[in-house]
Amino acid sequence: MAYILPGPKTSERLHAGKTLFRHGLNYDEDAVASAARGFIPPAQIILDRAEGDYVWDLDGNRYIDFQNGWATNPLGNCHPEVLQSVQDAHQRYGYHWEHPLRFELAEKLADIMPGKQLPRFTFEVSGTEAVESAVHTALCYKKRRYIISFTSSFHGAGMGTKVISGYTSEHNLYMEPWGAAVIKAPYPYSQNIPADMTPEQYVNYCLWYLESHIPEYIVPAENIAAILVEPGLAEGGNWIPSVDFIQGIRRICNENDWLMIVDEVLTGLGRTGKMWGIDHYDVIPDMMVVGKNLSGGVEPCAGVAARDEILGDNPRASAGSTFAGTPAGCAAGLKTLEIFKRDNVVEQAAELAEIAQSRMADWPKKYAIVSDVRCLGLLMGISFTHPDKTQFGDDYDDSYVARTVRNEMLVNGVWAICDTEPTVRMYPALNMDKQIFVEALDIIEAAIQTVEKGAPLVGDYPAIPSGVTGF
Ligand SMILES: Cc1ncc(COP(=O)(O)O)c(C=O)c1O
């Protein structure tokens, strides 16, 4: 039996949010607009509790968690050992900067960095801060003013990371001048390939843009400090770059004396079925940004790892807000790494990924609405389209199909992510129970079948029940 969402308690909370939160004033209007676009209002759930592979909403509905706190729970929700370690750290240290756990965690991280070649670490609270810190460090180290980042990338929501991220021009409205030192290059993935180019040609074009077009026409090579790249375009749709692209970036950085900074906030710590996303590419970066999973799903912990000289001898670079590397955050990170090793968590993720890959591989052939599937480990994405877009008129966008499938998954008990892109993104815990994982895949495939058979996408959704709004 599919859930009827939102249940009354969830609905009440959503209503309360109208006067409390950002966008509250547009709430009703947006809900009606989303409904008209095929987005069952509201697709939000509000949690009553979370445990292991499941979450429950305020109305008692249970969901398999493929949303994963926006990919922050490598060990499932509220892992008891991580909780205990966090509680112990709170009890012992409260909050002080000068605690020993930051030394222990930095040592452990140095040990698992690619090729053990990024031995220094600086702590930050969030991925956003860590990316800003990495960029600042790179500029100061190189004594240069520009960096290169990519379209469709996401590096955070601070002032710096907003302009570094590859948002659309509309997203960065009113902030355009703040991005003056960021050069945006195209990131190759299958849905942005210009007509008539093969994927390989597009990768070559993107590499040519980096090594020839930018230095020749935009900024001289000797003014550029670094390329910042996600080895897996995470928030941009879980797109997986080719080996040629990532190795090409390493080569171009070497040839131009630029630093290669990889943002592993989302791809790091086992998400891709290896410890680091970059491990799939046989490339060692100069700097790496980590976050999310390092929290053990409980307590924020993030930072930047770098080659010895970049962090060790860089007097101008500074960073670290009050709560960077809290005792509890470091305890969560330490316990997470301990469990990773003890329980072979990364290997477990790779095993689950194999199940997903073999199950999903033929979905683009089997279902007309599925345009692409991809899994690099448990960085999983399904992109959607519609074989007959014309019937929906000018208002149509592929993201409506994705949202409808995501909603269909939700009402049948699987919670995943669909933002504005035509993709459902999924981040199961790395150690999810196999049976539960397969059950979720069954629900996902059934949701695709329902929408394929003609679930309404635009316009003719049932009216929003009175008093129930949201989006
Ligand atoms: C690749 C990447 N970098 C940075 C960030 C920002 O991290 P945070 O939200 O912890 O500030 C994110 C968040 O989703 C991310 O996916």
TrEMBL record:
Keywords: Aminotransferase, Pyridoxal phosphate, Transferase. PROSITE patterns: AA_TRANSFER_CLASS_3. Its cofactor is pyridoxal 5'-phosphate. InterPro entries: Aminotrans_3, Aminotrans_3_PPA_site, Class-III_PLP-dep_AT, PyrdxlP-dep_Trfase, PyrdxlP-dep_Trfase_major, PyrdxlP-dep_Trfase_small. It comes from the Bacteria. Gene3D superfamilies: Aspartate Aminotransferase, domain 1 (3.90.1150.10), Type I PLP-dependent aspartate aminotransferase-like (Major domain) (3.40.640.10). The keyword Transferase applies. GO terms for molecular function: identical protein binding; pyridoxal phosphate binding; transaminase activity. The keyword Cell membrane does not apply. Belongs to the class-III pyridoxal-phosphate-dependent aminotransferase family. This is Aminotransferase class III-fold pyridoxal phosphate-dependent enzyme.
